[in-house]
Amino acid sequence: MFELFTRAIKSRYRSMLNRPDGPCEYFYRNGQLESEGAYEEGRAVGPWKMYHKNGQLEFRGNYKHGRRNGPWDLFYEDGQLRVKGGSIAGRPHGTIERFFDNGQLSEKLTYINGALNGPYERFNALRQLLAKGNYQDDYKIGIWLYYYDTGQLKKGGPYQYGQKNGLWEFFDKCGGIMESHVFSGDEVYGGKRI
Fold first, then answer.
1. Which helix (H) or strand (E) holds 22?
2. Which of 59, 8, 51 is nearest to 33 (CA)?
3. What's the whole-number average pLDDT of the chain?
4. By three-state DSSP, how is residue 27 classified?
5. Which of 29, 68, 84, 95 has the most C-beta neighbours closer than 10 Å?
6. Is 159 inside a domain boundary?
7. Among 120, 58, 49, which Cα is nearest to 83's?
8. How many domains does the chain have?
9. How does residue 49 score in pLDDT terms, banded at 50, 70 and 90?
10. What CATH number does the domain containing 43 carry?
């Protein structure tokens, strides 16, 4: 093993058989810390932190065998939380929450072993619900509802394997029904304007 300092890439780590091993730090050209963590036989392991060029934390999480594993967080340049989530073996797992730069929740979704599975919600910056439904194996399924920024229902209907399938209704901003259509595999097969 030997200590390696490289000015060109500004990194510092121990190397064994030309693979990083042990504690590691990477630096921006200006000398600011870019990331810190550890390697084991060339793979990222344990807690890691990555930083924006302004020094604010950008990422905080754990790695196992070179892949994200466990809870992790991403941050905006001002330090505000951007995404909160988790992974197993590098694939998203569990509830993932995304936030606007004002701190308000923008999206909440659920993954199981890298595939979207479970409830989904999307909001605007004023915390108004814009969409909700469910996923199964990365496909939209069941009833999905979409809303205007005012909170009034805009449209709604069922999905099957990610495609509109069944009766969908479309509403104006005052809540009156404008149209209804029957879909099969995203194709319109019937309906009427009201």
1. strand 19-27
2. 51
3. 90
4. strand
5. 68
6. no
7. 58
8. 1
9. very high
10. 2.20.110.10
